[in-house]
Write a structure and sequence with these properties.
Blueprint lengths: L3 H7 L1 H14 L6 H14 L3 E5 L2 H11 L7 E5 L4 H9 L3 E5 L10 H7 L4 E4 L11 H11 L2 E5 L7 E3 L5 E3 L6 E5 L13 E5 L2 H11 L3 E3 L2 E2 L10 H11 L2 H19 L5 E2 L14 E5 L4 H10 L29 H9 E4 L7 H15 L2
Parallel strand pairs: 2-3, 2-4, 4-5, 5-8
Antiparallel strand pairs: 1-9, 6-7, 8-9, 10-11, 12-13, 13-14
Bound molecules: pyridoxal-5'-phosphate.
Length: about 375
């Protein structure tokens, strides 16, 4: 699905130099490399604070810990997402309230959010799924009206732009109360190991987030609040700092591959290509198509036989996961999430796809769905 090896080879000298500099400095944890990367990422995103941490799941957890939510408080989240989004809610003894996604964008449906609000609701967690922004203008308006926090799960959309009706443009992850992202190797800004970051424009929250990620301390050995241990290591930071310089070019390469797919599938009545809402652009973490009538699992198998990877993100929506049986009984009716789980399939999407590969992939996809 990704080709991180060839991507690395193109920037090998810079990456290797970064790694060597960390080894020479012997500052494996925190220090200059982590600070430099965090500062550069803040600049790129135009956000006041970037707090690096160990992975994207921790980023979401720390974000929720910083908001002083109490057991039983309700957090509204899409059901159609990666498990990490919803799992941390339950881990913190909060109550996940699953809502449906929009049938066109596959991101959280603002009207479903509004319907799900009760007096216990404290936060909304929109997910910028597959690389395009959720409808943040409406979500922020709902949050303001009901005094709710917004935690953006930006693990799949770093670098994505959101354009508000007044033409203000902001990067996803910097719009809500707090944003969270992941540097897992296959993400659009991927490390060579685990990593994550938290974003906020609020100075007080930033200090608290930093403390929580560091055992609740500001001053060493003085622990004011209960936290955890979640660090980005210097090697990953040095690698990410090199890759950050190439992020816009990587996004362009993904868009180019997406556009090849779009053209190839134009006119195929069995394939619905990704839809991009007019308030955002798309950074194509995934290129995910919807097969209305064709055999999705059959295509998955057929492509594997042709040595073409493809993935089902996600075969089981959160409200149907055993993990959540205590929260999500049969009373949950989320038809779009259910439908998408049965119909979507993601094709190879990365920065190193060439036309020959794309032609091979699209020929085989069309061959299968048109037969
Ligand atoms: C990858 C991902 C995460 C979790 O990130 P990790 O670094 O793997 O912990 C959370 N949410 C979404 C939507 C993701 O895609």
């Amino acid at each position: 699905m990704v080709d991180t090896k060839n991507q690395y080879l193109k920037i090998k000298d810079d990456v290797d130099e970064g790694i060597r500099a960390v080894l020479d400095s012997a500052a494996y944890i925190n220090g200059k490399f982590v600070h430099d990367f965090a500062r550069n990422l803040s600049t790129y995103l135009s956000v006041r604070h970037t707090i690096p941490c160990a992975n994207g799941t921790d980023a979401l957890q720390i974000a929720m810990m910083a908001l002083d939510l109490q057991p039983g408080d309700e957090v509204i989240t899409p059901s159609f997402t990666y498990i990490a989004t919803t799992e941390v809610i339950a881990l913190l003894k909060l109550t996940p309230v699953f809502v449906d996604v929009d049938a066109a964008t596959f991101c959280i449906d603002p009207s479903a959010v509004e319907e799900a609000i009760t007096e216990k609701t404290k936060a909304i967690v929109p997910v910028h799924l597959y690389g395009q922004a959720a409808n943040m203008e409406e979500i922020m308006a709902i949050a303001e009206k009901h005094h709710l926090f917004v935690i953006e799960d930006n693990a799949q959309a770093i670098g994505c732009d959101y354009t508000f009706r007044d033409e203000t443009v902001k990067k996803t992850g910097t719009i809500g109360t707090i944003g969270a992202t992941s540097f897992y190797p296959s993400k659009n800004l991927g490390a060579f190991g685990d990593g994550g970051a938290i974003f906020t424009n609020n100075d007080t929250l930033a200090e608290k987030l930093r403390m929580i990620a560091n055992h609740g301390q500001k001053e060493r050995y003085y622990h004011d609040i209960v936290g955890c241990n979640s660090r980005l290591d210097s090697l990953q930071a040095a690698i990410l700092d090199v890759k950050l310089k190439h992020l816009d070019e990587y996004i362009k390469a993904r868009r180019k591959a997406a556009s090849f797919y779009d053209h190839a599938f134009e006119g195929s009545k069995n394939i619905t290509v990704p839809y991009t809402a007019d308030y955002t652009n798309h950074v194509y973490h995934q290129y995910t198509i919807l097969l209305k009538d064709a055999d999705r699992n059959g295509l998955n198998k057929y492509l594997a036989e042709q040595n073409i990877p493809s993935m089902i993100y996600y075969p089981v929506p959160a409200h149907k996961q055993k993990m959540f049986s205590a929260f999500a009984g049969s009373n949950y009716q989320l038809p779009v999430s259910d439908y998408l789980s049965d119909k979507v399939i993601s094709l190879p999407m990365h920065t190193e796809l060439d036309e020959e590969q794309l032609q091979y992939i699209t020929d085989h996809v069309l061959n299968f769905v048109n037969n």
